[in-house]
Write a structure and sequence with these properties.
heterodimer, A: 121 residues, mainly beta, 7-stranded mixed β-sheet, 4-stranded antiparallel β-sheet, 11 strands, B: 110 residues, 6-stranded mixed β-sheet
Chain lengths: 121, 110
């Protein structure tokens, strides 16, 4: 069964950093673009970042550009996001998601269970 | 940036009834690159429809999508108990960084 499992969430003070990981299994990881989508408590979905299969191209929402860095290790079938300069408004469940193909113009078809990030003093 | 407006905000229906959910875009969505997702409480979203009208793998045929340009519709032909959830539309047809979700429509039991 295709599966994505996130880890690394937790509580951090404003201005702090956190790195989330997403372990993928049962599909050829390097063949697909991957992304992060977040959901603030009681709110809707917001895309955060996307990376192509080779890792050569990355995309960021304006709200996180310059603070978050997406990366992947295809030898470990793992996706990452390094989150720096965290703000209270970054508080959310962060989902790892697989796109249906290797590129920007595709939807997310497989989602992880999510990991909670809380930014608070 | 494209804004997606979903209506109604909440739809109160009984099992067996037909649900019609709307997603309106502020600008035309290229090549009908619009998706619908279902999210139940405490769960991750699930892809239902992509390309405006294609059902994702394993999705029941009571779910159907239609529309082009700026107006899109998700129809659930006869609500099952497990269909009561929040539904989001998303466009993925604009160049980066435009990849917006609608605000969601909650389908609740009447």
């Amino acid at each position: 069964e295709v599966q994505l499992v996130e880890s690394g969430g937790g509580s951090v003070q404003p201005g702090g950093s956190l790195r989330l990981s997403c372990a993928a299994s049962e599909f050829t990881f390097s063949n697909y673009a991957m992304g992060w989508v977040r959901q603030a408590p009681g709110k809707g979905l917001d895309w955060v970042s996307i990376i192509t299969g080779s890792g050569g191209t990355t995309y960021y929402a304006d709200s996180v550009k310059g603070r978050f860095t997406i990366s992947r290790d295809n030898s470990k079938n793992t996706l990452y996001v390094q989150m720096n300069s965290l703000r209270a408004e970054d508080t959310a469940v962060y989902y790892c998601a697989k796109l249906t193909a290797n590129g920007w113009y595709y939807p997310f078809d497989i989602w992880g269970q999510g990991t909670m990030v809380t930014v608070s003093s | 940036e494209i804004v997606l407006t979903q209506s109604p905000g909440t739809l109160s229906l009984s099992p067996g009834e037909r649900a019609t959910l709307s997603c309106r875009a502020s600008q035309s969505v290229s090549s009908s690159q619009l998706a619908w997702y279902q999210q139940k409480p405490g769960q991750a979203p699930r892809l239902l429809i992509y390309g405006a009208s294609s059902r994702a793998t394993g999705i029941a045929d009571r779910f159907s999508g239609s529309g082009t340009g700026t107006d899109f519709t998700l129809t659930i032909s006869g609500l099952e108990p497990e269909d009561f959830a929040v539904y989001y539309c998303q466009q993925y047809g604009r160049p980066p960084p435009s990849r917006t979700f609608g605000q969601g429509t909650k389908v609740e039991i009447k």
